[in-house]
Write a structure and sequence with these properties.
Length: about 475
């Protein structure tokens, strides 16, 4: 128990009433087998199957249950009760909003709802922004951005709404505006309290911070619009649309700016000044809400050449790369930019390369830090045949699935399930031998776009990929 001795006694009585090792071992095995039934896959490659279920296991370890069996948990020296949700901990926000939570919204939406309520409870107790990197109710302050806002807005826009979303919106808005007071009490924001960001939409000398906060503002704008706060929605979207002001024409990339608006000096595109765990070449792609606009800014032909160079320069199995770096989150989902820009075949090619080269068996099988489920979630989601590029946007862009047959159990409490309470995904040929998509069909209807919406995925039914060698 994280709460007290009495909580430990109750947990023991409920979860382990007798000390029978074999019984407990068997029970743990059966629990995980039951969880894994949520996604079933069939394929001919045993290594792929082992990696897939290892990744699924990693993805579901966190955020873990923090509350006792009676719902009690500690927060800031007080004992609270989670009531109708399960209070959870271990939110590696900067990492997991990119793939883990987009995956969980499809396969385990109740966990997403728990985590939204958990972050909201912490923010209420502290009258602060949602934690950026939460551990046992503490804001660890790791990394940058406002990932709590991103994750919560994305969940709300997907219909996961068993929480006080009006209050959540007010907290997110106060955070974005660096308010000093909220609900008639002092408020603490994790956002940069500087004139440049509030008025000019950039954080001095910090391009990573700037782009992360702009993404949070994008999701907040979508959140505001759906709630009917049209003025707020317009305000935040206007701020988001200023990202091109960080484009340095001389270098041809997005880079940091000084307080006076001048660009910082950068030696070359591999310079990491102003970047968090990344460099200019990697961080400049981080405009997931406007990939086509970014392409026009860079030059459309140049963008495609740069993307190819980005991947070709990388050793995809290495622990660290100066170009595409799968071992760290700023690069995740860039493989799907090709699909957005009209070259889905290159998304299919590079996604398969990453799946096969960045993930292997063994203790050193992953190319980088698991980051509390994110690295694994990217693999699981792409293995199913799609990825969400931008939170707050309901599009999941296609790549070629890794397995011939897959089945996802949907949740009627959160998904519309208008066709079925399962989504069956089938490939007409072995995707290991036929790596390109010829056409896609959902419930008898040919899909003309390069994506499915969240609502289409969670309607259930049958998704068929017709594949080709070339």
């Amino acid at each position: 128990s994280y709460t007290d001795l009495e909580g430990a006694r109750k947990n023991l009585e409920s979860e382990c009433p007798d000390f029978d090792f074999e019984k407990v071992r068997k029970g743990a095995f059966e629990e995980w087998e039951n969880v894994f039934k949520n996604i079933s896959v069939e394929g001919s490659n045993e290594t792929d199957l082992k990696i897939f279920y290892t990744c699924l296991y990693h993805t579901l370890l966190d955020p873990r249950t923090m509350a006792d069996v009676d719902g009690r948990f500690p927060l800031d020296g007080k004992i609270l009760s989670s009531g109708e949700y399960t209070h959870r901990t271990m939110f590696s926000g900067w990492d997991v909003y990119r793939s883990e939570f987009p995956l969980l919204t499809v396969i385990r939406p109740e966990i997403v709802n728990d985590e939204v309520n958990s972050l909201l409870k912490i923010a209420e107790a502290k009258n602060s922004s949602f934690p950026r990197w939460e551990l046992m109710g503490i804001e660890a302050g790791c990394m940058v951005g406002d990932p709590g806002t991103i994750m919560i807005a994305d969940a709300y826009l997907k219909g996961i709404r068993n929480f006080d979303y009006a209050k959540a919106y007010e907290i997110a808005k106060a955070s974005a505006l660096c308010k000093k007071e909220l609900f008639s009490k002092p408020f603490t924001s994790i956002r940069p309290d500087c004139k440049q960001y509030l008025e000019k939409a950039y954080v001095p000398k910090k391009i990573s911070d700037t782009l992360e906060y702009l993404l949070a503002d994008y999701t907040l704008s979508r959140f505001a619009k759906d709630l009917g706060h049209t003025d707020d929605a317009e305000y935040f979207m206007n701020r988001v649309n200023r990202y091109p002001e960080n484009y340095n024409k001389r270098l041809g990339f997005l880079i940091s700016r000084r307080k006076n608006g001048w660009f910082c000096f950068e030696r070359d595109i591999y310079d990491g000044i102003g970047c968090v765990e990344s460099n200019i070449f990697q961080q400049s792609w981080f405009v997931p809400y406007d990939v086509k606009g970014l392409s026009r800014l860079f030059g459309e032909e140049r963008t495609l050449k740069l993307l190819e160079r980005f991947f070709e320069e990388a050793d995809l199995g290495r622990l660290w790369n100066e170009s595409y770096n799968h071992s760290n989150e700023p690069c995740h989902n860039i493989t799907h930019y090709f699909a957005i820009l009209g070259l889905p075949k290159r998304t299919q090619y590079w996604t398969r390369r990453v799946q096969k080269e960045a993930y292997r068996l063994g203790a050193y099988g992953f190319c980088g830090n698991e980051d509390v489920g994110q690295l694994s979630a990217w693999y699981v989601l792409s293995a199913l045949g799609f990825a969400q590029v931008c939170p707050g946007d309901d599009k999941y862009y296609f790549n070629t699935p890794l397995f011939k047959e897959m089945k996802i159990a949907l949740d009627k409490n959160y998904h519309n399930c208008s066709v079925s309470d399962t989504l069956e995904i089938e490939c007409d040929k072995n995707p290991l031998d036929f790596p390109y998509i010829e056409s896609v069909e959902l419930n008898g209807r040919e899909i003309k776009e390069n994506y499915l919406t969240f609502d289409e995925i969670t309607s259930g039914g049958k998704l068929i990929f017709r594949l080709s060698k070339e």
